[in-house]
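Chain A, query sequence.
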Amino acid sequence: MQNPMWKTPASKAGEEFEMIAKTFQGLETVLATELIDLGANNIQIGRRMVSFTGNKELLYRANFQLRTAIRILMPIKHFRATSADEVYEAVQEIDWTNYLTSETTFAVDSVVFSQEFRHSKFVAYKVKDAIVDQMRERTGSRPNIRVTNPDLQLHIHIAEYDCTLSLDTSGESLHRRGYRQETVEAPLNEVLAAGIIMLTGWKGECDLIDPMCGSGTIAIEAALIARGIAPGVYRKEYAFEKWPDFDQELFDAIYEDDSREHPFDHHIYGYDINRGAVAIATTNVKAAGLSKEITIQQQDFADFRQPEEKAIIITNPPYGERISAPDLLGLYKMIGRKLKHEFTGCDAWVLSYREECFDQIGLKPSLRTPLYNGSLECELRKYQMFSGKFNDMRAEGGDIKTVQERRMMADSKRFKRQRDFKEPLGRQSQRLEDDPRERFTRKKDREDYRRDSKKGDFRGESRGDRKDFRGDRKDFKKDFRKPFAGNKPAKKYGKKRHDDED
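Chain A, predicted structure.
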C-alpha cells in the first residue's frame, strides 16, 4: 500500500502510543500478565480487552508473541455519539488522506454493546460512508471496499455512547496460528487453549496429558509454552506488514530472536478414542514441528492407568452442544471415576458447560474459573487428586485449596448470579421420547442428525496455502525440529474408539 501522506501513531520511531489487545472473556488477567512480561506500559484491564501503551517494536512483538490476544488494535479516535449521524460526523473529522488513497482497499469491522446502536453492520456502513464521501470530495475518486484481505482494516467499538475507531494491526485473527492443517468438528480455539494452560500455571515442569485431544490444540499450545516458542512463528502475514511505514528490518529481528526459547525436559501426551481425530492431531503436530515433544495415540479414557510420573491433566470433553456422546452423563461419571482412582497425586483441569455434567464427575473442585467458549459460558474446574476420602484427608490436616484459590473463589464478581445453562439433558430426552418430531424442529438438530449418520467423517477444512508456511518464514529456523535429550519415549496404552471434541 503506497501512501506518501501515511501517518499513524506508530509512524514516529520510538514514540509510545495507545494499543488495545482483544481477548476472550475470562482471559483478560492472563493477557495483562503477558503484556507486563513484554514490557508494556499503562496497562488497563477491560471487558474482553486490555489497553496498554508502547512503541512500534512492542506493536510487532504483541502480534508475534502474545498467546491470549485475538487481535491488536491501534486507536486513532475516541468520541461519544448518540446517533448514527453523530458517528458519521465524527469519522469525517479525521483526515483520511493520512491513511488512504483512491487505490487503497479497506474494510470496516464493528463490535457494538449499546441500546442506541442495535445493529453493528449499520454502524460499519456509516463509518464506510463517511470515509468514502470525504475521499470523493477531496480527490474526486473513492477507495474500494474489500471484505477479504484489504490493504487497511478498520475496527469500530461502541459501548453505549463511547466509541473507539482503530486500525487493526493484525488482520486475520491471531488465533489462526498457521499450524492447524486439519480439524475435527467444533475444535477448541487456539487462544482459548493457550489461556487455559496459562491459567493452570503449568510451564513445562511435568508431563501433560490431554485424554480427549481432538485435533491436538491443547497439546500443541502446551508444547509452544513449554519450549518458549512464539505462536506467530508459523503465521504468514500481519496487517501491519502492508503499511507504508512497515519496518522490515525490525520485524525480522523480532522473528529471529530465539532468546525466550529453551529445552523441554518432559513430554506431552494427547489421546483420543476416535481414530480419525488421532490422524488429524498427528498431522497438526507434525506441521507444527513438535513431534519430539508430543505423542498422539488412540486411547479410550476408560482404559487409562496411573501415569508412571506426576502429570497434569487438561481436557475439554464434549458438552452435548455441538458435539455429544451416546451417554454424555455416563461419560462424565467415568471421567470422575478415572481421575479419582487412576490419577492420584495429579492435578486435573476440565473445561465444560453443563452443571449436570460437572455433577456427574462427583469430585469437589478446588477452583472454578468462568470462561467463554464461543457464546457458551463455560467453567474451567481444577481437581486435586488424593488417595482416600475427602473427610479423612481434611481430618489429617490436608486441604484441596490454596490460600490464593480460596481468595479467588470468595470473589463473587467472577461469576454471574444466574448461569445461562440450557435445558437439562434428562428433560430434553423425555421431551424427544414423548414426541420424536421435536428432534427435527430446529436446524441444529437436523444438522446433528445428518452429522451422526456420517460416522467417522472428520474432513476438516483445509487452510489452503497455509500448508506452505515452511518456505515463507525462512524454514522456521532450521533447528526447530531438533530433539532434546530430555525428551522421553512415548507411553503405550490400549486402543478403543469414541467421539470427542477438541
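The radius of gyration is 24 Å. The mean pLDDT is 82.
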